[in-house]
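Residues and backbone
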Amino acid sequence: MRRPASFILAVSTLCFSSCGHAQQQTVNSPFEYREVYLPELKSEEGHQLHLNSVDRDWGIWGHNLSVVLPKNPSPSVYAKQGNILIHDQFCFSSETLFEYIKDYINDNYGKDRTTRFAILPNDNSVVCKCGRCTELGNKDGDASGAVYHLLERLAEEFPRHIFFSSYYRTTSSLPRRRLPENAGVLISAMSFPLSPVHTSQEDRFAELLNRWSEFTDRIYIWDYLNNFDDYFTPFPIFDVAQRRLRLYEDSGVKGVFFNGSGMDYSSMHILKTRVLAAMLSDPYVEWRPLLKELCHEEYPVAGNLISEYMEKQEDMTAERGTLLPLYEGLPAALKTYLWADEFIRFHNALDSLLPTISEPEYSRVLKMDRALMLTHLEINRISADTTGCVRMLDQLEKLIDQGTTSYSESGGSIRDYVEDYRNMLKHAEKVGRKNLLKGVRLEPLTALDEEYRDISIITDGLLGLPSNYHCGQMLSSATPSLRIAVPNVKGMKSLCVNMTRNAIFHIAFPLRVSLSADGQVLGEKEPKASADNLQHASVEFDIPSNCKGTLVLTIFRNQEERTMAIDEIEGF
């Protein structure tokens, strides 16, 4: 299930700073703004890498314009549609809003030093339709007219500051005229998927940059460098990033913000930050010898193993030539940028090296090794191999004591993952050979969702993990119901349907589930949350001894929610 694209995805974790702008050392780079949004390195090292920071270099960042408002702002700052005032969006032609922004800048930053400010609408589709905004060009779905009018006023009022809007959602139109010299645009690269090879999307994005170059010399790109649903699985980004940075340089781009895991731990983040920093300074730098050198510095014992694996993963990904997913689990990773056998060899070798490593390298390698346990556990779960899983769960859980509690942008909890996995193992041990449908192929009678066509996942003998919809569940948006034919296996006296829900991603339990045979309804039940886990439900049907025909499950979706998740179908 893909989530709506948004280039302000990490904004809730970013903050604005009231401290002064810190000047960077001069560096011969095509980009005046360079940021790698991964866990911070030591302050002196970050300075040596010539990197910017949203905390240091922006007065307002992302969808945070509300920071300028007083405690009880005037209603005139909010969007209007007819006689309705909408507090979730701004009126960008409001004189009061302009004054609030002026006061905020004067009070916190003054006029004599350069700071960047993002003047963006809130992240929704609401557009102010008051008389003044309409005169400035606002129309349904498009607030560009009023936003650029405000941007121009601010740029004139504060000639030493730099003001940005975004090419995104309700500001996806080009301005009517060229922007002032101290104004620019943040362009999301979401429409330019990560790929190690040339794509048609690359050509379209280059054309977009070319069109924007007619309106401003200050184009900044909001780009991406990891899978936001899985910060722990190694993600090959060097060849991809270098290809993109060369395109950006050729297109006159002046700033690049690489959105990563933020302050959350990400595998190999120390190496990624340093290599990408070098690329931002020089898009043509040879990254492979640099990676080897950095690995030797950071990991004197394990460095060769780590660099060899990272290079091999880059090479294999380029050879495969597929787009890299930004929001997916291990099944998608295994089809694009991860090779199970290579990873397991690498992780086992890294794990074996630990007793030979001393501090300070030991702590860094230990944390990496424990984070990679999640990838190893998922590979085992997908292949229904539980060998060594208990030990790996113990190690993964110890990350919590090291201050790392989540593994994804949405706050995927390590504790929840470990608990769900342990419950999965206990259930598999309890059910064992009793499950007569384990490994039995079911037949879908209605179309399956494009990304969930592997129906074998719901008879693999393992429950999914309710805390993560990528792990062992089949999602369906079938309307009004999903119908599945189930073979009436000899000796099967009951059939159990397991389901999960996840409110964050609008995954709900089905409204009801019915079982029929030969056109006769054998039973119909409404799922209820389990007392042991409120994110899991199951319904069980008795199968009459005289029932000989194929069984048909009809699972009715709650159409007020986006989708439903079928976990495991078991027969006893």
